[in-house]
Specification:
The complex is a heterodimer of chains A (about 270) and B (about 220). Chain A has about 270 residues and is an alpha/beta fold. Chain A contains nine helices and ten strands. The chains are: A alpha/beta (about 270), B mainly alpha (about 220). Bound molecules: adenosine-5'-diphosphate (ADP) and magnesium ion.
């Protein structure tokens, strides 16, 4: 698969923000609203992510980026609106919801590897308990994924024995082991020491090249420019603008985005 | 000096204490864990039951519970726990009472352990598609237990001593024998010391063993 050309109109990402059900839309949010008490965190969000598309979500802290991510696999409920994954509405509860979550990989800022399980067990658990694979098949797949993210030699250690960068790469392998249709990343490099950020970004970049559908909350502009088809700028619970990475970073249209960029660029 | 011990089945009585303790411990660990699961479950009815159970049972003296199993369950309602002779019936009723009572404390210990598990662990588990029972069984409870081995050791030690209440309904464990010996023999202090040492022999290893286990299984974060 060719490297995405972030500068030429966002590949196949554009022109599909419309009604969402048609074409090859994988994730569709329609008029999604969410409050935390009096706080209106998501304000009529409409967003469509096409199959194979990489969308970077960027914006000031508290703008609702995490809530948006978490709503997509229903770790957070929504007040109104609809969310579709691969054409099916998000189930409310129970077994169906669990099944859907298995199709949506999630990578957290704080890694959240299962602390009482080894690296290998972290990556096999879902395969065995959710995908019902036998132990041997799951082990093989886990080792292959750990190799892919460059931590194969750590398979028998516990998460606490690994560096942050290694833990996050294991977390990516754990999510990939479910063969998800889409991967959500919520500030995957924000908790990392600077020297470990690149090892994680490289894994994500490779994933993007391999055609994975990704929604990535990040402030890493290098990643956005090289891997994203589209940048979604969120502030105060709204999608303020969405455009190609080049367009966004060099010539944002909203004042809110200009203001935000001037702050993150000047430090 | 120990002539007065003749004719008393000291080991036999302590053996009953051990049996009461071990069976009740297993039962209350299971029942207490189920109660803790109820208390954190998403079903309001289960949460309500768990909370009510703990708050009621924890606040009733054990003696009252044990006596109730005999007077209420057996003599009034005719619950004989599948046994025919009184010794077995009373033993089983005592175990039932001890489990019912101790489970409330196990539940609270396990629940405090559940509270030490970071919410991110649960979210990661849900995110890979585990359902609620799986999240609890595979992720939350294993980590919770590791953090409460110490508190659970205290519950087990208390249970060992609480088995003496079974004497109230005539179960022939250590305390019943002690009462009998005190009535019939003159060496009161010596008798007390013997039984005290007996109980320490039972509880001290529990504490030491579980203390060591607690360090060994602690979850590193
Ligand atoms: N569980 C919660 N309860 C109450 N308020 C919350 C909760 N989670 C997030 N918030 C609030 O919602 C707003 C959006 O949060 P978040 O989605 O985390 O933003 P971002 O990821 O863009 O920083 C913030 O003001 C935050 O304080
Ligand atoms: Mg956030």
């Amino acid at each position: 698969m060719p490297v995405r050309d972030g500068g030429s109109g966002g590949g196949h990402g554009d022109g599909r923000h419309g009604d969402g059900d048609g074409g090859d839309a994988l994730v569709v949010l329609r008029d999604v609203d969410k409050h935390f008490g009096a706080l209106h965190v998501l304000r009529s969000i409409n967003l469509t992510v096409g199959r194979g598309e990489v969308v970077v979500v960027i914006g000031p802290s508290g703008g609702g980026k995490s809530t948006l991510c978490r709503a997509i696999n229903r770790l957070e409920t929504i007040d109104s609106g609809e969310i579709f994954i691969d054409g099916r509405p998000l189930p409310a509860e129970g077994r169906e919801l669990a099944a859907l979550r298995a199709d949506v990989g999630m990578v957290f800022q704080s890694f959240n590897l299962f602390a009482h399980k080894t690296v290998l067990e972290n990556v096999t658990l879902g395969q065995v308990k959710v995908r019902k694979k036998d132990k041997k098949t799951a082990d093989g797949r886990a080792r292959q994924l750990l190799d892919r993210v460059g931590v194969a030699s750590q398979a028998d250690k516990y998460p606490a024995q690994l560096s942050g960068g290694q833990q996050q790469r294991v977390a990516i392998a754990r999510a990939l082991a479910m063969d998800p249709k889409v991967m959500l990343f919520d500030e995957p490099t924000s908790a990392l020491d600077p020297e470990m950020i690149n090892e994680v970004l490289e894994v994500m970049q490779q994933l993007a090249r391999d055609g994975m559908t990704m929604v990535v909350v990040t402030h890493e502009m290098g990643f956005a420019r090289s891997a994203a088809n589209r940048v979604v700028f969120m502030a105060d619970g709204r999608i303020v603008e969405q455009t190609t990475p080049d367009q966004f970073f060099s010539n944002p249209s909203s004042d809110r985005a200009k203001d935000f960029l001037s702050k993150i660029l000047h430090h | 000096m120990f002539d007065f011990l003749e004719g008393y089945d000291l080991l036999g009585a302590f053996w009953v204490t051990v049996q009461l303790t071990v069976i009740s411990a297993i039962g209350s660990l299971i029942w207490g864990t189920l109660l803790a699961a109820m208390r954190v479950s998403p079903v309001p009815l289960m949460r309500g039951f768990g909370t009510a159970y703990v708050n009621v049972v924890r606040n009733i003296p054990l003696t009252v519970i044990i006596v109730f199993t005999s007077l209420g369950l057996f003599q009034t309602l005719g619950v004989s726990m599948g046994a025919k002779d009184f010794t077995t019936i009373n033993f089983r009723l005592a175990v039932l009472g001890l489990i019912a009572y101790t489970a409330a404390f196990v539940c609270e210990a396990v629940r405090s352990g559940i509270n030490t598990v970071p919410v991110g662990q649960v979210e990661a588990a849900r995110a890979i598609g585990l359902d609620f029972p799986q999240v609890l069984r595979l992720i939350v409870l294993p980590q919770a237990f590791r953090s409460v081995v110490g508190p659970l050791a205290n519950v087990l030690i208390a249970l060992t001593k609480n088995t003496t209440v079974a004497a109230a309904i005539g179960v022939g464990e250590a305390a019943l024998l002690m009462r009998e010996m005190i009535e019939n023999e003159a060496q009161l202090i010596l008798i007390s010391v013997i039984f005290a040492v007996g109980f320490i022999c039972l509880t001290l290893p529990t504490g030491l063993l579980l203390g060591r286990l607690s360090k060994k299984v602690a979850v590193k974060r």
